[in-house]
Amino acid sequence: MADSIYTIPINEIFETECGCPVCAMRNTLEQRCIEYIMGAAMMEPDVRIETNRLGFCKEHLGMMLAQRNRLSLALTLQTHLDEIRKNILNGKREMFQKAGKSKKISKINSTCYVCDKIDWALEGLLDTMFRLYDRDEAFRELYAGQQALCLPHYELVCSLAQDKLQKKTLNQFLEVSTKLATGYLNTLYEDVSHFCKMFDYRNSGADADWKNSKDSVERAAWFLTSYEVK
Q1: In 10 A of CB 124, how many CB atoms?
Q2: Of 171, 169, 178, residue with least CA distance to 137
Q3: Best exposed site among 77, 80, 82, 112 by fewest CB in 10 Å?
Q4: Helix 45-54 crosses helix 113-135 at what angle (to 10 degrees)?
Q5: pTM, whole model, 2 decimals?
Q6: Could you give the residue ranges of the DSSP H alpha helices within 136-204?
């Protein structure tokens, strides 16, 4: 299949050794969205309306706090807090006696502007990935050559594939995806097991061979969550 503005970003990710390719997609979208919110989007009324309404989850608020432009974040949070102050926590005693109010509180505690944008954009990238897999043998080989699929994204792509792929390629995709996830899992298990063994006094010493286990706990946390746990 000839490259296009839609397929080039997918091919670039899959041609780079980056662990789980879906993590790479998500991470790229996440970083771009955070930079956008903390930059030009700060003064865009349409964006502010949405950030005021949806707010941010713990993870993405943390990423925004890590940026240098704290004034941008403060201005964004100012109007978000005002939205909550006026329309949700407005001091009325009957607040929790009304179903509509309690639903608003529940929603603001469980929504995130960045998550919504990432989910929307990732869906488009995965649609392109599935089209490539259906039509392009070279891409199928590229997919099979990936280093891993983390557990959450293994579930995601296998679930989506049921409706996205033709029957003739679906079974192959599921088999290859399972190999990518289980292959990494088996190696990870051996590394974590070796890490545990190294705390036996019989394996201690200056010449102790940790093999590939020293970062195995961090890699296990990534495999189970799709995020590097810090």
Answers
A1: 11
A2: 169
A3: 82
A4: 100
A5: 0.87
A6: 137-144, 151-164, 167-197
> In Å, how far are 5, 37, 67, 86, 212 from 90, measured between CA atoms?
48, 27, 31, 5, 55
Q: What is the pLDDT of residue 205?
A: 74
3-class SS of residue 67: coil
Amino acid at 195: F
Q: Could you give the CA distance from residue 51 to residue 222 in angstroms, rounded to a whole number?
A: 28
State yes or no: pLDDT of 42 exceeds 70: yes
CA distances (Å), origin 144, targets 68, 139, 167: 40, 9, 18
State the Cα–Cα distance between residues 154 and 158, nearest whole angstrom: 6
26-40: per-residue pLDDT in tens? 999 999 999 999 988
- Tally Cβ neighbours within 10 Å of residue 220: 17
Tell the residue number behind the tokens 């705390």, with chain if given. 199
Q: Which two tokens stand for residue 203?
A: 């394996």
Q: Please give the pLDDT value at position 1.
A: 44
Residues 6+ positions from 113 with CB-CB distance below 8 Å: 37, 50, 51, 54, 55, 56, 60
Residue with tokens 């929790």: 96
